[in-house]
Write a structure and sequence with these properties.
single chain, 243 residues, alpha/beta, Rossmann fold, 2 domains, five-stranded parallel β-sheet, 57% helix, DNAC/IstB-like, IstB
Protein backbone atom coordinates (compact mmCIF):
# COMPACT_ATOMS: atom_id res chain seq x y z
CA UNK A 1 0.00 0.00 0.00
CA UNK A 2 2.86 2.38 0.80
CA UNK A 3 4.41 1.72 -2.59
CA UNK A 4 1.12 2.49 -4.33
CA UNK A 5 0.70 5.66 -2.27
CA UNK A 6 4.21 6.85 -3.20
CA UNK A 7 3.56 6.13 -6.87
CA UNK A 8 0.33 8.14 -6.77
CA UNK A 9 2.15 11.02 -5.07
CA UNK A 10 4.78 10.87 -7.82
CA UNK A 11 2.14 11.01 -10.56
CA UNK A 12 0.54 13.99 -8.81
CA UNK A 13 4.00 15.62 -8.53
CA UNK A 14 3.74 15.90 -4.76
CA UNK A 15 7.52 15.82 -4.35
CA UNK A 16 7.56 17.41 -0.92
CA UNK A 17 5.08 14.85 0.35
CA UNK A 18 7.13 12.00 -1.14
CA UNK A 19 10.25 13.03 0.77
CA UNK A 20 8.30 13.58 3.98
CA UNK A 21 6.43 10.28 3.64
CA UNK A 22 9.67 8.37 3.03
CA UNK A 23 11.17 10.04 6.08
CA UNK A 24 8.18 9.08 8.23
CA UNK A 25 8.39 5.47 7.00
CA UNK A 26 12.11 5.19 7.79
CA UNK A 27 11.86 6.86 11.18
CA UNK A 28 11.00 4.48 13.98
CA UNK A 29 11.31 7.06 16.75
CA UNK A 30 8.47 9.35 15.64
CA UNK A 31 4.92 8.17 16.24
CA UNK A 32 2.52 10.52 14.40
CA UNK A 33 -1.20 10.71 15.01
CA UNK A 34 -3.28 10.81 11.83
CA UNK A 35 -3.76 14.57 12.19
CA UNK A 36 -0.06 15.15 12.81
CA UNK A 37 0.96 13.04 9.80
CA UNK A 38 -1.42 14.90 7.46
CA UNK A 39 -0.20 18.27 8.78
CA UNK A 40 3.43 17.13 8.36
CA UNK A 41 2.86 15.99 4.77
CA UNK A 42 0.95 19.15 3.84
CA UNK A 43 3.60 21.44 5.36
CA UNK A 44 6.37 19.54 3.59
CA UNK A 45 4.61 19.87 0.23
CA UNK A 46 3.93 23.58 0.85
CA UNK A 47 7.58 24.23 1.75
CA UNK A 48 8.80 22.29 -1.28
CA UNK A 49 6.59 24.24 -3.68
CA UNK A 50 7.58 27.57 -2.14
CA UNK A 51 11.28 26.71 -2.44
CA UNK A 52 10.89 25.64 -6.06
CA UNK A 53 8.98 28.84 -6.81
CA UNK A 54 11.76 30.95 -5.30
CA UNK A 55 14.34 29.02 -7.33
CA UNK A 56 12.38 29.65 -10.54
CA UNK A 57 11.96 33.35 -9.79
CA UNK A 58 15.63 33.77 -8.89
CA UNK A 59 16.79 31.95 -12.02
CA UNK A 60 14.47 34.02 -14.22
CA UNK A 61 15.77 37.28 -12.69
CA UNK A 62 19.32 36.62 -13.98
CA UNK A 63 21.07 38.49 -11.19
CA UNK A 64 24.64 39.66 -11.60
CA UNK A 65 25.44 38.79 -7.99
CA UNK A 66 24.27 36.10 -5.60
CA UNK A 67 23.59 38.73 -2.96
CA UNK A 68 21.78 38.70 0.37
CA UNK A 69 20.59 41.59 2.53
CA UNK A 70 22.42 40.21 5.59
CA UNK A 71 25.82 40.71 3.91
CA UNK A 72 25.43 44.42 3.17
CA UNK A 73 28.29 46.36 4.77
CA UNK A 74 27.05 49.16 7.05
CA UNK A 75 30.42 50.82 7.60
CA UNK A 76 29.66 54.41 8.75
CA UNK A 77 31.81 55.75 5.92
CA UNK A 78 29.41 54.27 3.35
CA UNK A 79 26.50 56.59 4.25
CA UNK A 80 23.95 53.75 4.28
CA UNK A 81 20.85 54.05 6.46
CA UNK A 82 20.53 50.60 8.07
CA UNK A 83 16.92 51.24 9.03
CA UNK A 84 16.10 52.12 5.43
CA UNK A 85 17.67 48.88 4.16
CA UNK A 86 15.78 46.88 6.79
CA UNK A 87 12.52 48.42 5.60
CA UNK A 88 13.32 47.21 2.09
CA UNK A 89 13.39 43.60 3.35
CA UNK A 90 9.59 43.63 3.64
CA UNK A 91 9.36 44.78 0.01
CA UNK A 92 6.57 47.17 0.97
CA UNK A 93 8.02 49.54 -1.61
CA UNK A 94 6.87 47.05 -4.26
CA UNK A 95 3.39 46.94 -2.78
CA UNK A 96 3.36 50.75 -2.85
CA UNK A 97 4.70 50.83 -6.46
CA UNK A 98 7.70 52.90 -5.36
CA UNK A 99 11.17 53.11 -6.91
CA UNK A 100 14.69 52.97 -5.47
CA UNK A 101 17.55 55.04 -6.90
CA UNK A 102 21.06 54.02 -5.80
CA UNK A 103 24.01 56.24 -6.73
CA UNK A 104 27.69 56.14 -5.84
CA UNK A 105 31.18 55.80 -7.28
CA UNK A 106 32.58 52.72 -9.01
CA UNK A 107 32.82 49.71 -6.71
CA UNK A 108 30.76 51.30 -3.94
CA UNK A 109 28.45 48.27 -3.80
CA UNK A 110 25.44 49.66 -5.67
CA UNK A 111 24.97 46.56 -7.81
CA UNK A 112 25.27 44.27 -4.81
CA UNK A 113 22.62 46.18 -2.87
CA UNK A 114 20.27 46.25 -5.84
CA UNK A 115 20.75 42.52 -6.34
CA UNK A 116 20.26 41.80 -2.63
CA UNK A 117 16.95 43.65 -2.65
CA UNK A 118 16.00 41.75 -5.80
CA UNK A 119 16.84 38.39 -4.22
CA UNK A 120 14.73 39.35 -1.22
CA UNK A 121 11.82 40.20 -3.52
CA UNK A 122 12.12 36.79 -5.19
CA UNK A 123 12.06 35.09 -1.78
CA UNK A 124 8.73 36.82 -1.12
CA UNK A 125 7.28 35.62 -4.42
CA UNK A 126 7.71 38.73 -6.59
CA UNK A 127 8.73 38.56 -10.25
CA UNK A 128 12.05 40.32 -10.78
CA UNK A 129 14.36 40.97 -13.73
CA UNK A 130 17.90 42.35 -13.54
CA UNK A 131 19.62 44.08 -16.46
CA UNK A 132 22.81 45.90 -17.20
CA UNK A 133 21.26 48.98 -18.79
CA UNK A 134 23.55 49.07 -21.83
CA UNK A 135 22.85 45.41 -22.58
CA UNK A 136 19.11 45.97 -22.14
CA UNK A 137 19.03 48.75 -24.71
CA UNK A 138 21.15 46.69 -27.09
CA UNK A 139 18.67 43.82 -26.73
CA UNK A 140 15.72 46.15 -27.33
CA UNK A 141 17.33 47.56 -30.49
CA UNK A 142 17.85 44.02 -31.76
CA UNK A 143 14.24 43.16 -30.94
CA UNK A 144 13.06 46.07 -33.09
CA UNK A 145 14.90 44.48 -36.00
CA UNK A 146 13.53 40.96 -35.49
CA UNK A 147 9.97 42.01 -34.63
CA UNK A 148 9.98 40.96 -30.97
CA UNK A 149 10.11 44.47 -29.47
CA UNK A 150 6.50 44.55 -28.25
CA UNK A 151 6.94 41.12 -26.66
CA UNK A 152 10.06 42.27 -24.81
CA UNK A 153 8.46 45.51 -23.63
CA UNK A 154 5.39 43.61 -22.39
CA UNK A 155 7.64 41.20 -20.51
CA UNK A 156 9.39 44.09 -18.76
CA UNK A 157 6.05 45.68 -17.89
CA UNK A 158 4.85 42.52 -16.13
CA UNK A 159 7.79 42.34 -13.71
CA UNK A 160 6.96 43.37 -10.14
CA UNK A 161 10.50 44.72 -9.84
CA UNK A 162 12.82 45.77 -12.65
CA UNK A 163 16.48 46.41 -11.78
CA UNK A 164 18.50 48.59 -14.17
CA UNK A 165 22.17 48.51 -13.24
CA UNK A 166 25.05 50.75 -14.44
CA UNK A 167 22.67 53.38 -15.78
CA UNK A 168 24.40 56.37 -17.37
CA UNK A 169 27.59 54.73 -18.63
CA UNK A 170 26.55 55.89 -22.10
CA UNK A 171 24.27 58.71 -23.17
CA UNK A 172 20.98 57.65 -24.73
CA UNK A 173 20.43 58.03 -28.44
CA UNK A 174 16.98 58.72 -29.85
CA UNK A 175 15.97 55.03 -30.08
CA UNK A 176 17.11 54.18 -26.55
CA UNK A 177 15.58 57.36 -25.16
CA UNK A 178 12.15 56.47 -26.47
CA UNK A 179 12.51 52.85 -25.29
CA UNK A 180 13.45 54.08 -21.83
CA UNK A 181 10.49 56.43 -21.80
CA UNK A 182 8.18 53.58 -22.80
CA UNK A 183 9.52 51.32 -20.03
CA UNK A 184 9.18 53.96 -17.33
CA UNK A 185 5.76 55.10 -18.56
CA UNK A 186 4.45 51.52 -18.57
CA UNK A 187 5.66 50.94 -15.01
CA UNK A 188 4.77 54.29 -13.47
CA UNK A 189 2.26 53.85 -10.67
CA UNK A 190 1.96 50.12 -11.44
CA UNK A 191 5.31 48.46 -10.71
CA UNK A 192 8.63 49.21 -8.99
CA UNK A 193 12.02 49.95 -10.51
CA UNK A 194 15.51 50.05 -9.02
CA UNK A 195 18.15 52.06 -10.87
CA UNK A 196 21.83 51.96 -9.87
CA UNK A 197 24.20 54.55 -11.33
CA UNK A 198 27.65 56.04 -10.85
CA UNK A 199 26.18 59.42 -11.64
CA UNK A 200 24.12 61.54 -9.24
CA UNK A 201 20.45 61.84 -10.14
CA UNK A 202 21.03 65.50 -11.00
CA UNK A 203 23.22 64.38 -13.93
CA UNK A 204 20.69 61.96 -15.41
CA UNK A 205 18.93 64.71 -17.33
CA UNK A 206 21.99 65.18 -19.54
CA UNK A 207 22.45 61.42 -20.00
CA UNK A 208 18.86 60.98 -21.16
CA UNK A 209 18.94 64.02 -23.43
CA UNK A 210 16.05 65.84 -25.14
CA UNK A 211 14.68 68.01 -22.36
CA UNK A 212 10.98 67.19 -22.72
CA UNK A 213 11.48 63.43 -22.57
CA UNK A 214 14.11 63.68 -19.81
CA UNK A 215 11.73 65.79 -17.71
CA UNK A 216 8.93 63.26 -18.20
CA UNK A 217 11.13 60.27 -17.31
CA UNK A 218 12.68 61.83 -14.22
CA UNK A 219 9.34 63.11 -12.99
CA UNK A 220 7.97 59.57 -13.05
CA UNK A 221 11.10 58.03 -11.55
CA UNK A 222 12.03 60.45 -8.80
CA UNK A 223 8.56 61.35 -7.54
CA UNK A 224 7.99 57.95 -5.86
CA UNK A 225 11.61 57.03 -5.16
CA UNK A 226 13.71 56.12 -2.15
CA UNK A 227 17.22 57.47 -2.73
CA UNK A 228 20.58 56.22 -1.51
CA UNK A 229 23.91 57.88 -2.22
CA UNK A 230 26.61 55.37 -1.27
CA UNK A 231 29.97 56.76 -0.16
CA UNK A 232 33.31 55.30 0.89
CA UNK A 233 36.12 53.41 -0.80
CA UNK A 234 35.61 50.75 -3.43
CA UNK A 235 34.23 47.54 -1.92
CA UNK A 236 36.24 45.54 -4.47
CA UNK A 237 39.44 47.23 -3.27
CA UNK A 238 38.40 46.74 0.36
CA UNK A 239 37.79 43.01 -0.15
CA UNK A 240 41.08 42.62 -2.04
CA UNK A 241 43.01 44.25 0.81
CA UNK A 242 41.47 41.78 3.29
CA UNK A 243 42.71 38.78 1.29
Amino acid sequence: MNTQTLEQMKQLRLYGMIRAFNTSLSSQSIDYTNDELIAYLMQSEWDDRQNRKIERLTKAARFRYSAVMENIDYDPMRNIDKNQIHRFTTCDFIKQKENILITGSTGAGKSYMASAIGHQACSLGYKVMYFNTVKLFTMLKTSKADGSYIKQINKLEKQDLLILDDFGLKGLDSINRHSFMEIIEDRHGKKSTIIASQLPVEAWHEIIGEQTIADAILDRLVHTAHRMDVKGESMRKKLKNKQ
